[in-house]
């Protein structure tokens, strides 16, 4: 069922609910999402109580309590195969852990993330249908709020740990080694906020700057729909996009940079295919080429090229959610059927 094929209802899923409360909840969520190195709570059902986990759990609980269950029906209908496949996988993991007498702690985290997917998907669906005008306008501020939060948070973290990012950046460019900036800025800045060493060493910046790219995408989508754009919204959006591009560039995250490059590339290719390339898009392309030239002249282009051309040294990956349960499957009685015959 597509977004355009749903009947619009004036009710927003809960009698007497206030759309402004939902809008504030969304902005708080985006403000907390990038602060993933901060651990205000020792433990949550999602593991170590990192700030973004609390934000996800909080917004999920708010949505589930604020709306009637029928609000989530479109998401369950559209993503039925995805949800059922995940439930099947979770059931297999839970059965394996039960068989080994290890309880169900390992499967709780992915189940909660699936619940969050359905709950937040229902809210996004309502915004897309024009049933949450206050939230639709609030999402225009998703990128400005998140970029400001990330910038302030990183600045405080570097100040607390005595890091001079300008000096480290100069050293990185002089050596043309992206590992210098990654180690001396990001990994050093995340220390002392309650995060365990495995997470700090596990390239945490991918998750942080991935959330920045998400917020930039959401704000761009919200700016292209809904009520008329105010000058303040336009200014906030433009500042956030420029600052966001700079942050994504210095993140030196290959996965995030590739995702960020694919986004405008798809837009340009679609416009070329339709013969609708506008002067604004041409101007953006020229700006991108100018920015690329600046990167080359300053030496940052060589650093980014080396990031893509060479693999990271001494990287320790954090274990994935299902890694341990599936390894246990291999040592359980179920692995007998797949063991080599003698």
Structure description:
With 342 residues, this protein is mainly alpha-helical. The chain has one domain. It contains 16 helices and two strands. Helix 8 runs antiparallel to helix 9 (178-189). Residues 1-12, 314-322 and 332-342 have low confidence and may be disordered.
- The shape, in one word, is globular
Low-confidence parts, pLDDT < 50 over ≥5 residues? Answer: 1-12, 314-322, 332-342
Measured as a percent range, the helix fraction is 55-70%
Count of alpha and pi helical runs: 16
The strands making up the biggest β-sheet line up spatially as: 1-2
Helix-strand pattern, N to C? Answer: HEEHHHHHHHHHHHHHHH
What is the first-to-last residue Cα distance?
52 Å
* pLDDT averaged over residues: 78
The structure class reads mainly alpha
Oligomer status:
single chain
What's the total count of β strands?
A: 2
The portion of residues forming beta strands comes to under 5%
Major β-sheet profile: 2 strands, antiparallel
Brief write-up:
With 342 residues, this protein is mainly α. The chain is 68% helix and 2% strand. Helix 2 packs across helix 5 (105-128).
Give the topology, please.
Blueprint: H1 19-32, E1 41-44, E2 47-49, H2 51-66, H3 73-78, H4 80-99, H5 105-128, H6 133-138, H7 142-160, H8 165-175, H9 178-189, H10 197-200, H11 205-223, H12 231-251, H13 254-274, H14 279-298, H15 300-309, H16 323-331
Antiparallel strand pairs: 1-2
Helix pairs in contact: 1-2, 1-7, 2-5, 4-5, 4-16, 7-11, 7-12, 8-9, 11-12, 11-13
């Amino acid at each position: 069922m597509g977004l355009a094929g749903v009947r619009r209802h004036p009710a927003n899923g809960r009698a007497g609910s206030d759309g402004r409360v939902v809008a504030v909840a969304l902005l708080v969520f985006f403000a907390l999402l990038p602060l993933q190195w901060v651990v205000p709570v020792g433990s949550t059902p999602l593991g170590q109580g990192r700030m973004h986990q609390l934000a996800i759990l909080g917004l999920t609980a708010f949505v589930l309590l604020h709306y009637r269950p029928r609000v989530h029906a479109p998401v369950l209908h559209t993503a039925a195969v995805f949800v059922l496949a995940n439930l099947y996988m979770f059931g297999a993991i839970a059965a394996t852990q039960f068989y080994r007498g290890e309880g169900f702690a390992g499967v709780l985290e992915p189940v909660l993330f699936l619940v969050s997917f359905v709950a937040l998907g229902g809210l996004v669906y309502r915004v897309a249908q024009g049933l949450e005008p206050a939230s639709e306008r609030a999402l225009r501020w998703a990128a400005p709020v998140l970029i400001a939060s990330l910038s302030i948070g990183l600045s405080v973290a570097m100040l607390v740990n005595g890091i001079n990012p300008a000096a480290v950046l100069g050293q990185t460019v002089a050596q043309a080694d992206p590992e210098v900036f990654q180690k001396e800025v990001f990994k050093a800045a995340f220390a002392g906020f309650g995060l365990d060493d495995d997470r700090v060493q596990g390239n945490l910046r991918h998750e942080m700057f991935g959330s920045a790219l998400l917020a930039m995408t959401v704000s761009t989508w919200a700016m292209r729909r809904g009520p008329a754009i105010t000058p303040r919204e336009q200014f906030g959006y433009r500042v956030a996009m420029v600052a966001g591009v700079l942050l994504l560039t210095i993140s030196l995250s290959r996965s995030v940079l590739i995702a960020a490059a694919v986004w405008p590339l798809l837009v340009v290719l679609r416009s070329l295919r339709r013969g609708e390339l506008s002067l604004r898009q041409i101007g953006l392309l020229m700006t991108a080429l100018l920015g690329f030239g600046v990167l080359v002249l300053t030496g940052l282009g060589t650093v980014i090229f080396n990031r893509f051309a060479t693999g990271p040294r001494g990287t320790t990956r954090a274990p994935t959610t299902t890694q341990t349960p599936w390894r246990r499957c291999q040592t359980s009685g179920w692995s007998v059927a797949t063991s080599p015959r003698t």
